[in-house]
Amino acid sequence: DQQVKQNSPSLSVQEGRISILNCDYTNSMFDYFLWYKKYPAEGPTFLISISSIKDKNEDGRFTVFLNKSAKHLSLHIVPSQPGDSAVYFCAARGESSGSARQLTFGSGTQLTVLP
Amino acid sequence: DAGVIQSPRHEVTEMGQEVTLRCKPISGHDYLFWYRQTMMRGLELLIYFNNNVPIDDSGMPEDRFSAKMPNASFSTLKIQPSEPRDSAVYFCASSPPSGDRLRTQHFGDGTRLSIL
User: Among A87, B44, B50, B87, which residue's beta carbon has the most beta carbons within 10 A?
Assistant: First the structure.
């Protein structure tokens, strides 16, 4: 059973518009959430994170929103740029399996920003 | 700063052969993770180590898979015997010790494994 779900495998957005990537989770013990970005033939790289005690974290063009009651988080990218085209993974960290260091990843969303 | 280094970048081998994937974590990091990425299942955690000791190997798919970390700067993931369904991209990641404000995992560029 997937504890972290990204239900949209792909998303296409026009350059300059907003990209919204969604993620749902089932484990209420998760206390920290992260977004990773992955280009082809490279490993994922950390993008932005949010603690469960917050509902919003902003870093430049990237904002992550957390709705704990709905167990939902989203990543907003505005304005979107062609260089943002990549696979975006949502990840959650908690006390699952006895460790706070273990991340559970979603299956990823391929974002394509069209020029 | 050198990141997580994985080798080889690509491996193509025949079914039944032993495969060894290698990883050098970032110096000073005390957690090391092995992941597998497939189209069907996305990014899955296979095993992770803390201070060279395996902590959780519940993600290792079968006894054909084994991982070791003989010292703080090196880890291996072995598959013996390999099967076509093991074809995937395998990532290694390392994480800094507790107290570090970053608290994220740094990934290598992965090993793309193809079993024929």
Answer: A87
Sign of CA dihedral B62, B63, B64, B70: positive
| Predicted confidence (pLDDT) per residue in A55-68, tens digit | 999 999 999 999 99
CB contact under 8 A, A46 and B105: yes
In Å, how far is A100's CA from the nearest CA of chain B?
Answer: 10
Q: pLDDT confidence of A85, banded at 50, 70, 90? A: very high
Interface mutation vs chain A, best among B104, B111, B113, most A CBs within 10 Å = B104
CA distance to partner chain A, nearest, from residue B81 (Å): 26
E runs forming strands in chain B: 5-7, 10-13, 19-24, 31-38, 42-50, 53-56, 65-71, 74-79, 88-95, 106-107, 111-115
